[in-house]
Design goal:
Four copies of one chain form a homotetramer. By secondary structure, chain A is α+β, with helices and mostly antiparallel strands. Chain A has a single domain, classed as Chorismate synthase AroC (Chorismate synthase, AroC fold, 4-Layer Sandwich). Chain A is built from eight helices and 17 strands. In chain A, the strands form five sheets. In chain A, strands 1-2-3-7-4 form a five-stranded antiparallel β-sheet, with helices on one face. In chain A, strands 10-9-11-15-12 form a five-stranded antiparallel β-sheet. In chain A, helix 6 packs antiparallel against helix 8. The first copy, chain A, is globular, with a radius of gyration of 21 Å. Chain A starts with a strand and ends with a helix. Chains in contact: A-B, A-C, A-D, B-C, B-D, C-D. Chains A and B meet through strand 1, helix 3, helix 6, strand 12 and helix 7 of A and strand 1, helix 3, helix 6, strand 12 and helix 7 of B. Chains A, B, C, D: It is an enzyme of class 4 (lyase). Chains A, B, C, D: Pfam families: Chorismate_synt. Chains A, B, C, D: Belongs to the chorismate synthase family.
């Protein structure tokens, strides 16, 4: 009801501003007595952290997660798992260039109008730094869902689109290149393009595709909490996301039913998967496939006109270290959110399915 | 937690199968002492009902809504508003052709696997008939939001796309044609196309664009319940929807930041609106603009191969009266869901904003 | 968030005013494929209905429940179960004596102040008639919990207290007398007392004790959703309830720890049960035992001073048919609420406990 | 849905085990731009902390709260307020005497059965240490509700009962004595009695009365989220609480309606207040008055028989520093929970009441 919790049975609540003391969260409802590998969690965080390659922001954040509760002798206790990531880069700085300025296509204006008091340092709560907490919770969800495989990858940067469907791709390529594209040739071109964009002081948008494999049949709660509706909300809640489509998505609107229908075979698999693994809001056991659209980063190393808090026109320019393209670092965030949605729905589905008394 | 409630402060819970006794719902949390025009509610229902034109299903449903509670002397009482729409067309019929068959790209298979007991008559709960209840609640939300304007219209049928942006359109055209396209020339072509598709026993997808005007600044609850995330979930929960995008959406991923940023002017309006009226998950006062992708209707008047509940291959064909294209009747549903999301967020935002004690 | 839903995974939403068209509700989240005996549901309703004996109100309500959805071929489908109970006794009457009057210790004043528009006919939404919907949902919950035994009984009427602990009582007595006391001698005295009270035009309070047997270990979600906290809320939400205590309750505050501690035996049962079956908010497998305090009915057949909506002093007197003591008819309501709480917690507990993937 | 969140619009989520790294929480939904006095929050914590007098546990915890987010330049920002209280007393100790033992009337047995993995050090999550987080959130709620007055006090210790109604009491006495009784003579007797009980290695129960003054009319959401139902749940969720009653409570069940009804006067106040400030689940503007029953502390400095995790009978005895009576330190907890309930309901009520668009 206040926007900082996600999930129902496996529920994450996050806190923290980009330049405050720390960010972090509380996971409530994790099943108990499950062994957790904390290194795997840190590894997921490292995939998201700044400074990992030469095409992402060089902001200095080690992003070390510390756990405060909910674990005992290496296993979950069923009580809340609290964690904290200290903001190493939160030293006193000069924010005078943005203090009273509404940066274009940022949330400065809307936060100021909504809350009347705003931590203007580095975006405060509206900074994508908050998503580090999501990655922590998602990494835990993934460990509980070991039999499933969550794979996200960059499928477009600007007009450069990966025109292969995922069965034609080698997912092991993804972590072999800084763009996290599943095709190495295209990855190289995307990397060069991003570098060029950065040189121009500009930024560029992109698309991430996500595939969830080995998904059980039956997840999703019609009519409102359909599985893809919750996946869509999860993705749209990530900073800079402007679109979501599952299966055939917008392209599918141009198809006829006779082309689009996924015929069911005697093995209960469908011959095609235009549905993207969801029928009537419930997983049908086929791979779940969806795409997420990210707008270009709003902070430019170029002068832009805008206004300040007294409605006076001013000129401003981004300072410091920013991402020229958000998608490489967003790949683990997409996976994290997907894992949380699936785990939450799995727990909910099992609540009733296992009803035997 | 069970999928049949939508919203938090203004909350709709729906019930009903397509061929059961009735469908309906309960609206909990409607502000009290608000006059309601019941005719306006029925009018919205009439926009969704079968048989309204020659390009939609001819199923016979008068879809008359009856109210059971929550109203007194023409005004809301603040107590739950329950309503019922009797299923006129629920007579005993022959459903033997679908009883044991999983129709392709329908929810028969997933409902059977999830619930083990399924009302197979006409889709049961998975039928889009359920959305009539949403239209009722949305029509009430609209009356509470009289100062806002919710306008949805068909912007694509198959490959026929409306290539004008909404400021170039005359919204009064929308209800003047059975397709609910905002351009009358294109509407005629779309209508002819849909008729041809129907003749082929086939179906076709489409896109609906929705514009919300006169929206106040400040709606949306970051970081998870961002306004567009909740709009996205609402739209993705509608039958046949496979995609959602706000503002520049997927197209915006190909743009540079220098092209995409919406510069803020001294009147606090932006010069462009690639953001679609939402920044950082909060409305910025510009028009909210989003698109919704609908797949082609799964029921064909053609023979298709599929399997039955004993995993045997069978051939089946749709019977009776079905929509060749879902978008004309989905227009009021999109508006209804949008109105509910906005009202719920407005109430929530006001809860804290008006805090004075 | 608006007060008319109860439960999380098994969730009831109710609607309806005492003299409107009907009352009813929607149960969302009932496990699927469970056979339901509709007669048993009606039987529970009959235990609550007016006119069943000579010490309860003679209001004429047949209270027949009709189901609208969620059932197919005698079993639950997992979709919402909607039901309606038509208000037989809602004919046009003369309500002029209460229209503008705030009846003492009724909710007229608070509803008017909160909502500004109020259905004054017979209490409207604040009437205990609403609890019939709870009995329906509780009767379904009971059928899902066949291995458990829910037994409520009248343990006090005014100063007449049943001074035996439940193991000394024969529960088969309860339905053998109109007071629903578990001791037949005392029941007769209570009955006579209630008749005398009624003759005086007065009313009297009472206490209901509830015992839940064969409860599994592990239900309850600390630290806020402790099992007894949710039971307490459930009971306090019933009309006229002013107190709740579990196990030793208020009496236990006078005891020393050395007297009060329940020693655990090698069979994992405790030698005493001052805890009332809950330790740390979680069921420990012992019987759950709690008491619920009901105030005397506020409607008197005596003249009382009060004010009207214009703050003028007036005199008023109850008309028609009212209960002199609420507890006999409240017994099935207490059981119903208890069953819903237990089922909801059981489903929630199983969601995580059964986590194996 | 997992038990560690409380409230809806003003929502607290807590974490932490008594002997883990720290305890703390996240408050989501606090109205923005409200100045907070952090010293007042620490002062409330000091009222709850160990070692404050000679009749409470001498455990060494300084209980200093640190804030991590949600505050900027002394005011709330509307984003989550996270806080942490480090466990000073969490050093490595010898817990071998309780590691495998189920202490009588503690939650060891139920946590072990529910979660299968349990932090046995000092009670872990089931320790009342968790309530410090509630006091922090309650202290913030109180600051937002400056016009209201929340006063809790010890009204019984064992059989020693304070037989005066609150209008006869001087509330300034409460903080003048270590028992937090509002009558100084009785307080001295209670203090002596608690010391004697402690000398015996025993413990004793007690009752806290809470009065909320200057409450606005209209708070509470019938029919399930009645104001007193939520207050009851809040109180029953506090460690060691076994009973709750509002207004006349259990005593009121012995009264006749003609004695019990609160007559409404022309100033809209009632002549008596047997209702305890709530009618039909909604505040009527009169003082809210309720009582909370606390059982005797379960940890005794006496030998007790119990079993261990292998179902073998063992003898055990409490070690270290424990409270002989919980009520003196529970007084601020009762106030904190009450303040959170009232604030949450006030925000919710205002959401709809202020609906003007």
């Amino acid at each position: 009801m206040a926007g900082n919790s996600f999930g129902n049975i496996f529920k994450l609540t996050t806190y923290g501003e980009s330049h405050g003391v720390s960010i972090g969260g509380i996971i409530d409802g994790c099943p108990s007595n499950i062994p957790l590998d904390l290194n795997l969690i840190q590894q997921e965080l490292d995939r998201r952290k700044p400074g990992q390659s030469n095409i992402v922001t060089q902001r200095k954040e080690s992003d070390i997660v510390q756990f405060k509760s909910g674990l005992f002798e290496g296993k979950t206790t069923g009580t809340p798992i609290a964690f904290e990531i200290v903001n190493a880069d939160s030293k006193s700085k000069d924010y005078s260039h943005i203090k009273d300025v509404y940066r274009p296509s940022h949330a400065d204006f809307t936060y100021q109008k909504k809350y009347a008091n705003r931590d203007y340092r580095g975006g405060g709560r509206s900074s994508a730094r908050e998503t580090a907490s999501r990655v922590v919770a998602g990494a835990i969800a993934k460990q509980l869902l070991k039999e499933l495989k969550f794979t996200a990858y960059t499928s477009a940067v600007g007009n450069m689109q990966l025109n292969k469907d995922y069965p034609q791709l080698d997912f092991t390529n993804i972590e072999q290149n800084p763009v996290r594209c599943a095709d190495l040739d295209l990855a190289k071109k995307m990397e060069d393009y991003i570098k060029q964009i950065r040189k121009e002081g500009d930024t560029i948008g992109g698309v991430i595709t996500c595939v969830i494999q080995n998904i059980p049949v039956g997840l999703g709660e019609p009519v409102f909490d359909k599985l893809h509706a919750d996946l869509g909300k999860a993705m749209l809640s990530i900073n800079a996301v402007k679109g979501f489509e599952i299966g055939s998505g917008f392209e599918g609107t141009t198809m006829k039913g006779s082309e689009h229908n996924d015929l069911i075979q005697t093995n209960e698999q469908t011959s095609t998967n235009f549905s993207g693994g969801v029928q009537g809001g419930i997983s049908n056991g086929m791979d779940i496939v969806f795409k997420v659209a990210f707008k270009p980063v709003a902070t430019l190393m170029q002068k832009q006109k805008t206004i300040n808090t007294t409605q006076t026109e001013v000129e401003m320019q981004g300072k410091g270290r920013h991402d020229p393209c958000v998608v490489p670092r967003a790949v683990p965030i997409v996976e994290a959110m997907a894992a949380m949605v699936i785990l939450d729905h799995l727990l909910l589905h099992q609540a009733r399915k296992n009803f035997r008394f």
